[in-house]
Amino acid sequence: MASVRNKLKTARTAIGKGEFSAALEASVEILEEDPSNYNANVFLGLASLGLGQRDKSEQAYRKAIQVDAASPLAWQGISKLYAQTGKWDRYAESLDRLAHIFAQSDDATKCAENLQKYVDVCKQHLGPLQVVTALLLYLPNSELYPVLCSLPPPDATNPDSTTTFAAQSAIQNSLPVVEEVVQILEKHEESTFTQEVDKRRKRLGAPAPDVIRQEVCYEIWSESRLPEFYNEILNHPNTSDELRRETESKLFSHRQRLLSVTPSSERKSQVSEELEEMVNGIILLGISNEAVWTYHIEGQDVYSLEEYDVSVLRKFLDLFPYSGYTNLILGYLAYAGLPPTTDPESPRPPATIEYEDSFDVIQDSYNELPDSVLAARMMVDVFHNDRDYENAIKVAEIGLERTRKLESERGKPFPKTRRMFNVMLGTSLVHHYPPKYHTRALRILDDVLSGDEDNVPSLMGRAYILQASNDWDAAAGLFSRVNELLPDNVNEGIRAREELAWCSLHQGNEDVAAAELKAVSDTLDDLEDREVDQARCLWRMGKCAWKAEEYDRAYQCFITALKRFPSFAPAFSDLGVYYLEVANPPDPNRASKCFQKAFELDATQAGAAKRLAESFAEEREWDLVEVVARRTIEGEGGNEQITPKHLPVNSWAWKALGVVELNRKNHPAAIQSLQISLRGEPDDQVGWVRLGEAYARAGRHAAAIKALEHARSLRPDDWICSYLIADVQSQTEHFTEAIASLRSILDDHPSELGVLVALSTAHLNHGTQELSLGFFARAEVSFLTAIEVAWTAMETNSGFSRVLWKIIADSLFRYSSIQSPGETQRLSDVLVTLKEILEAAPSIPISKPLVGSFAPEEVSALTVLYFAVATYEYRISFGFHDDKAKASAWYDLGVALQTLRSRNVESHATITQDRVVHCLKEAVSAEPDEQSQWIALGNAYFLSNAKSAQHAYIKSLELNSKNVATWTNLGLLYLHHQDLELANEAFLRAQVLDSNYPLAWLGQGLVASAHGHELDAEQIFEHIVGLETTIAEADLSYAFKLFSRIVNGSQEPAIVRESLVPAFFVLDRYCQERPNDESALHLFSLVCERVGHYDLAVELITKAISILEAKYEESEDLAIERQFAVANANLGRLRVAIGDFEGALESLETVLGLIGDDDGAESRVLRTQSYFVTGISKFKCGDLNGAMESFQSAMDSAGDDHTMIGHVSVLLAQALWSLGGDEARESAKSQLLQCISSDPENLEAIGLLAGMGILTNDDGLVDAALAEMLSLPLDQRVAMDPHHDVDGLLVKHYLGQGDISRAFSEAQKGIFAQPTSKELKLRAASLALQDDRSVQALALLTSVGEVSEGTPAEYAKRLGLRAVAESLSSSEGSEPLKLAQKAVKLNPASFEAWSTLGFVRNTTTQ
């Protein structure tokens, strides 16, 4: 022990001298002997710190503290260490510990010194909560406080006299410390709130911001210590009054906010009780705290405003003269007639407000206090008393919402306040546009009465609802109950007596009602300011007398009522009825004035309004009818939002308004008004008719049909419904149904002119529809029927003559587009009748020559067009009612004349271009805003004046830029003048507007042709013929381009036949529409020849020849003559095809005769063809010499043209070969050899010669035929033989010899030459299968791929080959069989496909 003490002394001495190494060594030695030696650890810490070994120093101090935590030496050392290292939180902890250690040893000075350091460190380096923790050690509830109290009082004159001045001051007066704590906590809670809200808002799935704020507020305020410190300030003896008021306000605000965010629980009730206790104390003491007083006033749960403590309100006025609530309270006191103060000697009397200004003051205050329940109560009371029920409803709803919010914030119900708002809302709904809101009002009032069965306003309101629904007994019971509750009340009580008497009247007790009303009237006479009530009671007395048929007494009562209150509208209404129905004589003028006065005073006087509307309607004052209807609707609340279940009170007004809107073409508004009208009167047949008409005009045709069918079911004998249904059916292009409907009307009303006109129009439109669909025979019947019905209508009635003549003219004009009329007799009868009328007309100078030469047996489309023009001109002679009719008449005539000119009728010189333009200019002048007339004018100028045509089209586009026809016509104009770019833009614009408009596509096709893009043009024409609506020109163009491409190609005949099928069908359609188009007939004939319909081809071309012959006889045009020759040449060839050789010779003789000695290229071709076909015909007729002469003539005619010579040589060789016999066949071979020698590239001759060699097994001939071809370079050979005919001949030659391997080798050579040729690969695959090389065949077929291009027959052939190859290659599964079945499905007529299926099935089974 002595050595330990010596070493401790040595360490202490070394530390005192600053010799920290020696001290360290001594301390270590001591600790080696006694590890728990406190002083040694302390010295070790001091020495280590002196040597800069801070971690070792801290460890030594910590070990010393573990040995003796109550000794200050180690704490002082470690405190110094933390101060040097800046570990402020640990430094503060050590200072706090030292303060407590010195407190335990009653060393007040050192305790205070360390506490002061602790507070300073927290303020400088730590957070607000650590500062609060440190400051709280100064307060009386601190465990340090008893020791610190022993400090002497501070000397404010000499604060540096002690080291503990701050602690002495805090102990002497703790109020500043508490204030500082409050200030710190307030700032801390505010910043914590902001940070926490921002953090939570950024989380995924975060709730609404209001919810987040409420959650954070509750978390902070529920754990806040501020109320504790607020109370300390309030209870502190040094607190000033000003600070006390401020702190009270803060404590109230804190508790109020906590209450508002606290969820419903016991805690909320506790907070509410604490807050109420505080508020009541402040109110009792009359302390000036506006928030508390406002809280108290808003929290009063009373039923009526009379239950408020007026003294509290007046005290509020005293305390807070400039508050927003002050004006509210002052205004209501003035409105209620109460003085603002009862103390006339008050030192600060509140401002006074006049009664006249009270309403504005209350309303302004209500707007300034958006959350005030009191303001809503006062406002709704004012509105309700002033009978402003609309605003009362709005404010009552707002008041209920504010009450709900108040209940939520304060955590307790306000049943009386809620009941008051419900009563105000329910009773206002009762009187606001009754009975519109009675259903809602009844629910509210019943809810009030369930909790307060004697609530008088609710009983009265429910009784009024029952009165409105004519439940007089139930209403009387409620009024009787009110009378029992308030027998002497001069307001609700006496009104209940009056209403009870009114109920008695409607219950049939007129005497009782009259007596009771008399008693009520006497009582009212003694009361002031009850003029309205007096007038109403007298009026009701008059109604009692009226019901008793005492009209004079009733009249006196009505007059007296008006004397009491001159603006009582019901009395005026009944006076009007009296003057109209009772007075003798009746006085309609006075009655009308009474009705007008009544309706002017009160828009709810529906009886007066209806009588006024009826009188205005009789006078045809439709604007006044609309005014009355609209004001009547306003009187029943019609200007408010219309709900789907709204039932109108005055259905007639809604119907009248609907008709007005219908006439103004405001169809949605008309439909809505008529629908509302029918809700009130669902059996109003006229209303359903009008609704159907509105639906139809709005384009809602299905709804229109339903409405009109319902109207017809209500009144089956009303033919107007059937008529309107037919009109809707016509609008939807259901003409068959429309015609049936109209004819059903005519069965009962055969002379109804309007129906006849509609029926004629329906037949006309039906015919137009049928014509556009290609049903020409049906269209003829419809047009003729339209004309006949129009005749019937004119015979029945002379009216509508202009309309009927237009129908006749339109029918004839559309009929004229049918080139071959079928109903000739019926049409002839119509034209004969029409001719008689037109010849008698003096004012048709243009068309009289056209119809004058008509003969009944010569009916044609052109004749019909003549009569259409004449009828249009005849129509003009009737004159015009207006500019629109004038424009229509001139437009129709101009279009008809333009159509007539377009048919090249040159013999009628009177129909000039100027006359057409004149007609269309007249139309445009009469109606310049009609776009169709500008289009027609542009069409008239199309060929003669491009600038005028463009101007007309552009003018039409200005009127309607979305007219597809205008854009198309403009494009055609540009195309005609070779401006392809502008034309293309115009056509594109038209296609954007209507992608199915065929004429725009036709223009695009023509533009493509003009650019040389023939394939694109053909595709466009193909698209046109597939549209629902087509045009003949597109059919012809498509057929021509397709035929030209196919014929000029080198496809196999089978492929040619299948490819020309579309052309066959479109030409068939075209020729039905235009049967006299010789070019189309000729083309159709050639198409029929290619597809194998030779008889039809002969029939068509014969008809074309007849038309050409007629035209040539008329014009003797050389072009027509040449067409006639070509047609006869083709006819001769076709007759050979059907075996009519004599007829062929006749046709060909005609051709040769027409050609004569003309040596032109085309004539030479025709002559050569004619000689050659003549030779074939003679050969078939047995004239061999004549045939040979003709063949020789053909050769001579060909001259030096190797192509023609080649064709003739080949055909001649074929003819010689067909004769049989060695001599003929040798001649055929010689002919071909001679041809090949002169034209080595004539592939057809080479192939034919090789074929002859194959048939005769003459290898030398085959080699001689193909030697020249096989010796050519590969690229040149491919160019000359693109379809590999030579290779095919060689393959067939080897196959004929039975040498399949060599045939396959030859096919492979072709593939080497053209490795991309699918045709060669398929040929090689077929040969490989024949040579039992299924694997090679499958490889070749796989390289071809699964493409389905080509005809179905070609695709079926590929599938069949693949099926056989896979089956022979031992392919597992059912894939070969599926391929074979698919091939049969694609080409069911193929024997090869069925054979393949049988083979594959047999192979698969094996």
UniProtKB/TrEMBL annotation:
Keyword Magnesium part of the UniProt annotation: no
Q: Which UniProt keywords apply?
A: Repeat, TPR repeat
SUPFAM superfamilies cross-referenced by the UniProt entry = TPR-like (SSF48452)
InterPro entries assigned to the protein according to its UniProt record, in alphabetical order: Ski3/TTC37 (IPR039226), TPR-like_helical_dom_sf (IPR011990), TPR_22 (IPR040962), TPR_rpt (IPR019734)
Which SMART domains would you find in this protein's record? TPR
| Coiled-coil features, chain-numbered ranges | none
Q: Name one GO cellular component term.
A: Ski complex
Question: Which GO biological process annotations does it have?
Answer: RNA catabolic process
**Entry annotated with the keyword Methyltransferase:** no
User: What Pfam families does the record tag this protein with?
Assistant: TPR_16, TPR_22
Q: Pinpoint the residue ranges of every TPR repeat in the record.
A: 685-718, 964-997
Give the source's domain of life in one word: Eukaryota
* Name the UniProt record assigns to this protein: TPR-like protein
